[in-house]
Design brief:
Elements (H helix, E strand, L loop, with lengths): L9 E6 L6 H13 L14 H10 L2 E8 L2 E8 L1 E3 L4 E5 L2 H7 L6 E12 L12 E15 L2 H16 L11
Antiparallel strand pairs: 1-5, 1-7, 2-3, 2-6, 4-5, 6-7
């Protein structure tokens, strides 16, 4: 294992969706709609922090979207939850750090849960249009740069989480 200073930079995204009162979360969703983010359907909105955390845990492959000085940038990373809110952590290499201008502006992290085609034949005897059922989690926040020690801990935690279900899990910590 290289010294901590030589390990790629990692960033933690601190997100706002899970925090605050119901009224505060509602205001953030309204602001997101007004700023051109994904259209919300109030009939299907999910505000249950426990359920959102379950979706993140079960579907940890995330899409990171940044609006940078050179345009939109998109990358994909595994993430894990940290703490009791909706803070996520991941390993982000230095090239992606620069491309996404991490720490300079807010980003959106998208996690895709279960999804599937729904045929109108399943719910209507009359001619009707099909639909697509899906669950997504959109997290908004500004990445935080971590210290070298915290970077190493985050990388070890990521390895432990994804190695744990394997028959002979490996660990960075021995």
């Amino acid at each position: 294992l290289p010294p901590a200073a030589d390990v790629h930079e990692r960033h933690r995204l601190r997100v706002v969706e899970g925090g605050g009162s119901d009224a505060e979360r509602h205001e953030r969703r309204l602001a997101a709609r007004q700023n051109g983010q994904m259209r919300q359907n109030p009939s299907f909105a999910l505000d249950d922090l426990t359920e959102i955390r379950r979706i993140v845990r079960e579907h940890p492959w995330a899409t990171l979207v940044s609006a940078t000085s050179t345009g939109l940038q998109v990358s994909h990373y595994p993430v894990v939850l940290e703490g009791d809110d909706l803070t996520i952590v991941s390993h982000v290499g230095r090239p992606d750090d620069a491309i996404h201008e991490l720490g300079e502006h807010d980003v959106v992290v998208i996690l895709q849960g279960p999804h599937g085609y729904v045929s109108p034949g399943w719910y209507d005897a009359q001619p009707a249009v099909p639909t697509w059922n899906f669950i997504t989690v959109h997290l908004h926040g500004r990445p935080e740069l971590l210290s070298a020690e915290e970077n190493l801990r985050v990388l070890a935690d990521l390895v432990d989480v994804f190695e744990a279900p394997l028959p002979e899990p490996r660990s960075m910590n021995g």
